Amino acid sequence: MEGDYIARRLEISGIVQGVGFRPFVYRLAAETGIKGEVANTSSGVSVIIEGGRCEIDSFCSSILHGPPLAQITGMSIHNETVKGYDSFCIAGSRKNSDRSTLISPDISVCGDCIREMSNPDDRRHNYPFINCTNCGPRYSIIADLPYDRPNTSMKGFRMCNECQKEFDDPANRRFHAQPNACPRCGPGIKLYDNNSEVPGDAIEAAASLLKKGHIIALKGIGGFHLAVDAENSRAVMLLRQRKHREERPFALMSYSLKDIQRFAFATPEGEALLKSAQRPVVILEKRNPNSIAQGVSPSNNTLGVMLPYTPLHYLLLRHGFTALVMTSANISNEPIVISNEEAFKRLAGIADYFLVHDRDIYNRSDDSVIRPVAGAARFIRRSRGYVPTPVFLRQDVPRMLACGAELKNTFCLTKGNKAFLSQHIGDLENAPTYDFFTSSIEQMKKLLDITPDIIVCDQHPNYLSSTYAQSQQGIRKVHVQHHHAHIVSCMAENTLEGKIIGLAFDGLGYGTDGAMWGGEVLIADERSFIRKAHLAYAPMPGGAVAIREPWRMAISYLYRTFGRDLFGLDLPLLKEIDEKRLNIIIQTITNKVNTPNTSSLGRLFDGIAAIIGLRNTVSYEGQAAMELETICKDTRESYDYKWSNGETFNVLLEPIISGVVQDVTKGADPSIISRKFHNTLITLFTEICEEVRTETGLNRVAMSGGVFQNAIILKGLIQALSEKGFHVFTHRLVPTNDGGICLGQAVIAAQMHWDR
Q1: How many domains does the chain have?
Q2: Which of 261, 270, 408, 566 could form a disulfide with 558 if both were Cys (CB 3.0 to 4.6 A apart)?
Q3: In what side-by-side order are the strands of the sheet with 454-458?
Q4: 242: CB partners within 8 A, 6+ apart
Q5: Is the overall model pTM greater than 0.85, yes or no?
Q6: Residue 197 located in a structural domain
Q7: Is 22 part of the annotated catalytic residue set?
C-alpha cells in the first residue's frame, strides 16, 4: 500500500564522525532495502531514509547498535516527504549553525591493519601509516569539522587510484576512512642524525641504533617520544642525564602482553586496559627480579607500561626488544614536541637520532596514564585516547571555560550537558606551557564551536590559569575554592546532587583564609561548602621550597611537637642536616618569615617520609609520598590521634608525630612505620565521617585530591567507610588530582549562575 512507503529524517549526535558511522549506515541500508542518503553535518550525522514502515522501524532500531567506536548520545526522528530516492548514497558533508558533533579521540591501530602490515604480499606491507575506518589518528590530525580529509593534516596527500577505490567502495574496510593512504600516496618516514638523513631502511636502522644504546626521538600520533632500550642501563641513565629527569619513572612500551608479563604483573583489569583501543600507560606492579634497567623506575615497586598503538611502534618493537622506554619528548616541565622542526631544535641536546614523518600533528596530546585500583581504572593523566570525549553532566549548564589549577593543568569547556576536558597541559610554571594552554583553549573553542559566557578559575591569585582568566575582557568571571572544586568534580562525574561529606586531600590549595589547605573534610554541594574538619596548621618553612625539600616540613612538625627538645631526638634526619641550618629554619618558623600555614595531608606525607629517613629532598612532586606508599608492609597497628571538638574539628598532629618518632628511635622498620601511618589516617578520617554523620545525617562521602592516587589510602577508606554504612564515591572518569579540578569549577560556576 502507498501509505506504507514512508520517509524519515534522522539527526544523530555523539561520536559519529571518524568512526565509520556513514559506511555502517550505508551497509545497514543495503541490508534492509532502505533508500536515501547519509551525510556528516556540523552537529553529527543526518540520515534521510525511504522505505516500507517495517523496514524503516527495523533500520531505526538497528542504527543504535554500531559501529563499535561510535557513541550515540542522541537521535531525533522527523517525518519527511517521500522524494523517491532510487538508491542509498553517502552525500557530501554539510555545515549548519549548530556545531555539536563529538570528535573521536585517537585510537590504536586495529588487528586487521596489523595483519595486513605483516603480510609480505600486501601492498601495505611494513607501511607505518596503515589505518582503516576502525582505527588510527583522529583528534590529533583534525583542524576543523566536519571530519573530512580537507580538514585534517592528510589534506596534502592525494590518494592514489587504488586507495581512492577503497575509499569509494562500501564493501571495503577503508570506505570513507579519511586518513587512508599507502606507500605510494601517503606520509613517509625518515631517519636523521643531528645533521643529515641516514640512508637505508629508516626503521631497521633505528632499531639497530637503539640496540647500540642510542637515544632516538620518535614522532608518534600526539607528539614525539624519546626512546631507548629499557634493558640498557647506560642508555637509560644517559637519557635521564640529558633530559634532566633525575628520578621520575619512565613509561615503557612492549610489543605484546607476553613481553610485559616478563617484568610486570598484569591483573585482568590491567590486561583489559593495556589491550583497549585507547592504549593508555597502565601502572603495574613490578615482577622481581626482572631485566628492565633499575633506572627506569627507581625506588618504586611499579612500572608504567603500554602496548604499541601506531604501526610504527609495532614495526620498531618487533626487532627483539623486551621493552623500550617511551617518554614524552620535551625538556623537563615543557610541553611535548610535535613538529619536526621543533624536534630538531629543542631535542638536539637529548636525542642522537630523529625518526620523523611528514604528517603534521595539529593537536598535541601526551599518553594517558591509568592505575587500576579498588576494582576500577583510575586516571592519573587523561589525554590521548580519551580526549575530547566529554563527561556527561546531569543537566544542561551555561557555556563556560573553566581554567583548572596550576599543576597537572587541564581546562574544561561546557556545552549543554557535556563537559569537554582538554588533554593534559602540564604544570603552568613556564612560558611554553602557558602558550600551549592558551592555544589549546582557542583550538578547542573553534572545534567545539563554544564561545563561553562565563570564565572560571581558582581562587589562588597567582596561578597562571587565574591570571589568564582575569585578563579576559567582556566576560563574567567566577572564582572557585580549590578543594570545593575537587569534591564537586567527584560529584559531577557521579551525577550527584545535594549535600555530601567531602574528603579533599592533596598537596596544596589556596584556602578562604589565605592558608594553604589540603587535609579537608567538607560538607559540600554544588553551591557552597562548610569546612567541617582539617589537619591542624603547620608552617611551611621557605614556602614552595618546602615542597622540594621535605626535611623542612619534618622540622616544622617536630618543632611543633617537641619544641627545641627536638635536638635531643635520635633521628637520622637531625644528623644529616647541619645544626646551623636547622636553627635558621626554626628561627624562620618562630619569626613567621616566609612560612605560610598549611593543613595539607600531602605535606604531612612529606614530613613523615623525612622523619623516618626515607627522603629529605625530591626531584618531582609527590615523590616522597609515593615512596612512603611503596615501602609499606602489612600491619594492623596505628598511632594515637585526636581532634579538638567545636564547630570545626582541628586534627592535632602531635600524637601522630610523637608515635612515629618513638618508633624511629626504637629502631622500628620504616616499612612498618609507614603502614601504621597509613592505617592511622584511614581510621582517623573514618571516625570523623561518622561524627559528621551523627551531626548532619549525611551518609554519602566523595573523595578527591592527589592523595587519593595512593592505593592504600584509597582502598582503605573505601573499605572502612563502606563497612560503616557510608555510600562512597570516587573518580573514574577524570583524574582525582588537579587534572580533574576544572570539571568541579564548571559545575560550581553553573550553580552560582543559576542562583544569581
Answers
A1: 2
A2: 566
A3: 391-397, 412-421, 400-402, 454-458, 476-480
A4: 215, 349, 350
A5: yes
A6: no
A7: yes
